[in-house]
Amino acid sequence: MPTLQSQYDKARKVLPGGVNSSVRLNRALGTPFYVSRARGSRVWSIEGREFIDMCCAHGAALLGHAHPAVERALHRAVEVGLAHSFETEYHEELARKLCACVPCAERIRFCSSGTEATLHLIRACRAFTGRDKIIRVEGHFHGYHELIYIGGHPPASCTENRTHPYLESPGIPAAFADFIIPIPFNDVDALARAIAEHGRETAMVILEPINYNSGGIQPRPGYLEAVRRLTKDAGIVLFFDEIQSAFKKSPGGAQHDLGVTPDVCTIGKAIGGGLPLSAFCGRADIMDLFQPAGPVQHSGTFNAHLIPVLAGLAFLEEAAKPDFYPRLQQLENLFHGGVDQIIARHDLGMIVPRHGARFNILLGRRTPAERYEDTFCHDRAVMLKIIKACYDRGVYFHDYGGGPAHHGYSIQHTPEDIGRVLDVLDEVLGQLKDVLR
Known about the structure:
Elements: H1 4-11, E1 25-26, E2 31-32, E3 35-39, E4 42-45, E5 50-53, H2 68-80, H3 89-101, E6 107-111, H4 114-129, E7 133-137, E8 180-183, H5 188-198, E9 202-207, H6 223-234, E10 237-242, H7 253-258, E11 264-267, E12 278-282, H8 284-287, H9 306-319, H10 324-346, E13 350-351, E14 354-355, E15 358-360, E16 362-363, H11 380-392, E17 395-396, E18 406-408, H12 415-431
Parallel strand pairs: 5-17, 7-8, 7-9, 9-10, 10-11
Antiparallel strand pairs: 1-2, 3-4, 4-5, 6-12, 11-12, 13-16, 14-15, 15-18
Helix pairs in contact: 2-9, 3-9, 5-6, 10-12
């Protein structure tokens, strides 16, 4: 039987770093987590060990693994003939149903990944406004392409991000940073100053309405409303990146949950039922700029492949069931009620922000974070110890470089699963309480 290490040794001979996505190296294990099969709330390693999955494909597996509705959709795709590069009635049906769910969505286009979704929608926003600059919020994540992988997550040592936006990867030309204006989250005055200085050159303000990618930071009361007002007054497109937040608490995403409607948004992760499907949507006058309705290009042989489109319809059918979100809410209440008790009982210096079926673990704080730099207290080394100790006890949390990353559960998790996870966390955090105070 192969081991994680032996498989990793083989993979590194043919794959850069042994992986196909950089964050698949789980540093708490020293290797990627190699899975032999997955079903429901469980995954099995190639070593034959069973785990409760608290990663859930980074939020994409909201239905859990091998959900029967998705399996039926896959069989249906085979019956149709795996048709791709064609439009079908299913594409229109999925688009129509999503437009009925998402408040800002009057038109929608499909692609495979969140990175693709933001890239194409940024192009449309620039074409719509005739402007080039982007106001983006520190700590928020919008994909790995050169247009926006700048200024989002500078290291603590980078003190000049707001005057010289930080390039987040080698290979990004420095000139791309000229189009990026980073601002802190939850700071209305900072946004107002940025608009006053750069508004006539700015195409959009882009942000996560819930900042899952830096500790689960929530917007202050009134913040998003102010962002909506300021952008509208300046003729700037308001762009919500809901790749992560879509469907986690309601069918309408965070814009529905929080009551603020942007001009455009991206949605992804969960909508494919575990298959690669993302989308970008928004006002008709912006979206109709895409060819053939308008001049902006967006094409791709595998855009809206039939398999994920049918899986997306299966996901929406499940999410529309009257018990779907009440069941997720039950799991949310059970998990977070238990976590709060564990933190209080051991007097731990940590918080577990949450919104719907995703949550974060942020070490080193007892009060909510409000902006990116508030997460610099997070102890990455201790987080890796927590992940490894949970792994040793049959609970899988993923490592995103040891930072305050997001985790979650699916509709196929049971109260018994959550109870087991809480027991493991109680034991692990209790053993580490001296370094968590």
